[in-house]
Structures are given as structure tokens and as C-alpha cells.
Specification:
about 5% strand, mainly alpha, flat, two-stranded antiparallel ribbon
Length: about 110
């Protein structure tokens, strides 16, 4: 997972500085879906219970990109933590929702 601002910055930096064919852009940190759900819960103020259905597991439990090559090749490191990125995204979404509701007179 990578915040969009970091993705754009990494792509521009790679285009300007790299002669390497393939670079992984990422944070170098692994997050479980449970941890991401907990971060979303905290950022959004959700007070309910997160429920899991272990019989419906699909895919990989954690994702982690090897990012040492991008650090070595162009000196690039993601700047936005998962918590900050999700927090900013929740705030943006809530402001958009508020704008829509106010335009409808809700």
C-alpha cells in the first residue's frame, strides 16, 4: 500500500533520476488487513466492532515490497505513513460527503 502523493513523487523522481528498468515503489512495511481495518476505525471514529469471517479468506494476508533498490538507485523513500495516509483520506472523504449533503440541503 502506498499513498497517492508518494506514488506520484516516486514516479516523477524515478523518471528524472533512474536508468534502472524496474523499481518497486513502496514503504517497505507490511500491514495485515486487520491492522488496516483498525487504522481506518481509529481515523474514522467508527465505534462498532470489526468482524472477521475466517472461512472467507482470499488472497495474501500481508503485502510487502522490497524497496532497497529504489532507495539505492534514486534515494527515494515514501514519506507518508499508513496512519497519516488513511487519516488524510478519511478527512478528504468526509469533507466531500459534507459538501454533497450541504448541496442537497441535507
Amino acid at each position: 500500500f502506498l499513498y497517492v502523493d508518494d506514488t506520484v513523487d516516486g514516479m516523477i523522481t524515478a523518471a528524472q533520476k533512474s536508468d534502472v528498468d524496474v523499481l518497486n515503489l513502496g514503504t517497505g512495511e507490511a500491514y495485515s488487513i486487520q491492522r488496516i481495518a483498525e487504522i481506518i476505525q481509529a481515523a474514522s471514529g467508527f465505534t462498532g466492532t470489526i468482524q472477521y469471517n475466517p472461512t472467507r479468506f482470499v488472497g495474501v494476508q500481508k503485502r510487502l515490497l522490497e524497496v532497497s533498490r529504489v532507495r539505492e538507485a534514486i534515494g527515494w523513500v515514501a514519506e507518508t505513513s499508513m496512519e497519516q495516509g488513511i487519516g488524510d483520506t478519511v478527512k478528504w472523504y468526509q469533507s466531500q460527503l459534507a459538501d454533497v449533503e450541504s448541496s442537497k440541503g441535507l
